[in-house]
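Cross-posting from the modeling subforum.

Setting up a comparison between two proteins and wanted a second pair of eyes on the formatting. Protein 1 (sequence, then structure tokens):
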Amino acid sequence: MDALERNELIELYGRGYDDLVACLEELPKEIWKFKPEPKEWSVHEILIHLADSETNSALRARLLISEPGKTSMGYDQDLWVETTNYHDQSWKDALEGLKWARKTTLTLINNLDEGVWQHAVIHPEVSEPYTFEMWLKIYSGHVAGHIEQIKNNYRIWKEKEEA
């Protein structure tokens, strides 16, 4: 990955929270617990997932910086939704957690030495070395991918309401 591509991904990563908030402001609250299918996530669940994922992401970034070669934690995101009762958790708190984890990590990655981008850890869900560049590719688009999921939930909800 060259510096230009990396900077574009860092910029996308930095916009994630604001883009998410802008998307949420367009949604009626009635949709927030709507699930298009029983195994799919509601907006509320997506927000809690993003907070969980972002805190894991922040820890992975710090592990990549400080302890390359160590083993990173994996997690079963669907199991977390079920076993930690996402609908019983505060989406407002989740948004705050996402905001601060992302903000502090953005500050951190904006000031990295070039060589750190080549650091790698062992990730139990990835067969190849999990590099910092891989981390950036995943997490720079993570929120954007869930924004599309939220928009799709809204589209499906509207279609059902209009039917």
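Protein 2 (same layout):
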Amino acid sequence: MTHKIALITGASRGLGRNAALKLAARGVDLILTWRSGKAEAEEVCQQARAMGVQAAALQLDAGDSSRFAEFVAQVKTLLQTQWGREQFDYLLNNAGIGIHASFADTTEEQFDELVNVHLKGPFFLTQRLLPLIVDGGRILNVSSGLTRFSFPGLAAYASMKGGIEVLTRHMAKELGPRRITVNVIAPGAIATDFGGGMTRDNPQINAAIASQTALGRAGLPDDIGDAMSLLLSDEAGWINGQRIEVSGGMLL
């Protein structure tokens, strides 16, 4: 049986890592990207292979669009040499960074870095990867609950996520003739190392989030990885152009 292949950016840690392992458990082969965590990405590949799927990792700075053509060429070669295929099935634009700064204090450098990683990167990386995505494939972008609710210090970050939500709808419209679905997942506060690990490591912040969430706790990586793998599955084929918030009912 031919396995589906998912390409996941930023999969050496956090939500990308969790999604990769959830997809591997579903029998999906993996192409993972890492920016600085090569050893961590290789560890994810080893765990995936132990589940009976193929996995490979490539270096990618999702905020440096000048290197995307080179990266896409690497993906094309990898598909041919390891899988004997020309295309892959699922793209998860997951790579991200967290910058916490008040609106008044956000610098242009911080703003530009967030634009490059969270908006320009997914836009032009997906554009270049389009010929390698199968007709009938899946694209899943990553937003944030912060496009619906607001907290101090996150204006720039949330603005980029608002952009990716609008972009998702337009992508879904334009890629419809190829039967490629495009959706965006919006996690709530999740206990990972993202943004310095505040939700995971600060008991006061964790408790505050739990008190604001209908299900009574902060989110865990498994909560998001499960949802990501579901939205990339064949069963989700009639979900298209949608923002799916996965927050346990935060700030309802």
